[in-house]
Amino acid sequence: MSFTLRVVLAVAAALGVVFLVETFQAPLVDNAQHGYRGVAMGQVSYKPAVKAQLAANQVPPPEDKQDPSGQPSSEVYQNVQVLKDLDSNEFLRLMSAVTTWVAPNEGCSYCHTDNLAEDTLYTKRVARRMFQMVARINGGWKAHVGATGVTCYTCHRGQAVPSNIWFDDKNSAMTHGLAQEGMGKDHPSYSGGLSSLPSDVFTPYLNETKDVRVISTAALPGEDRHSIKQTEWTYGLMMHISSALGVNCTYCHNSRAFADWDQSTPQRVTAWYGIRMVRDLNDNFLDPLASTFPKTRLGPLGDGPKLNCATCHAGANKPLLGVSMLQDYPELNGAGEAAVVPPPSTPTQ
Question: Taking residues 201-205, what's their average pLDDT?
């Protein structure tokens, strides 16, 4: 074999190796068993998405601990309406953390004027209500959030306005009337999972209290008159939950008996409470704030921003991948007067 031929073969072999390396790669999809074997309850994950999820769910370091001053915040500062009994030094520590969580670029002036006691800025009045909402979640909805709890960062992630909020659909008059043309379908939307399913599933299920139902599994259902239309609306909600948590349907359901609670996972119960928690927060905290927000913060139909499953979860089955920030800020755990649900405060000029 001549030298030239050997060189040509060596180059060809090298190129072949490069081709094989570039062409045949490790699979980009993982499948983890979730539930009993043989019941098709595996969770499929896309590796690049998992990597991006890890990067997007990093928790900021906690503020340095402060020695207590011995005085409650309400005795040191004027017009403190929530967290009144919190030590004044811990109160300042929490305010510093909230600035980082919600308005790192705007700073304290996002909610406060030079006179810190004033309620002139709508953002301060909204923030006060959000403290009460966080307390409500951590104190009243442990069936959903458990001991992990939430803080302002869970939703805001360093942004004044959380990424995943929603407003009433401009086609809501059509989508809520099942007898009207289109039955709310064929208008692909964020809430319906970009599908031909109903385009506004948030209003009936996460703002109102419509039952989440599917068509009867019996040939002659008797009194159970749930229709295919109701099934489609339910599937639209399920599409949202699946996307919001980054999971398959089998995260909560057994694929051979979707409707059977006895064959479902514990996560289905957690999700059941989660739907009711979101309704509570939208109805008692966010909807009443519509009159507090300026017009620039309202939706096309004049309603205020509302939350859904993605607002906290942001594509992860557990918000912030299950890391609890509440342990560093126990004052947000929902104990005391902050868990009460009074009406929104009015501005003090």
Answer: 91
In 3-state terms, what secondary structure has residue 23? helix
Q: Quick one: average pLDDT of 295-315?
A: 94
Contact 189, 201 (CB under 8 A): no
332-348 pLDDT, tens digit each? 998 554 455 544 444 33
Answer yes or no: are the C-beta atoms of 101 and 267 closer than 8 Å.
Answer: no
Q: Which residues pair with 166 in a beta bridge?
A: 306
When pLDDT is averaged across residues 39-46 and rounded to a whole number, the result is: 72
Nearest to 205 by CA among 226, 165, 233, 180: 233
Q: Please give the average per-residue pLDDT across 96-115, as a whole number.
A: 96
Strands (E) in the chain, as ranges, are 29-33, 42-46, 165-166, 306-307
The residue assigned the tokens 């309704």 is 279
Residue whose C-alpha is closest to residue 206's, from 281, 313, 299, 314: 281
Cβ contact 264:254 at 8 Å: yes
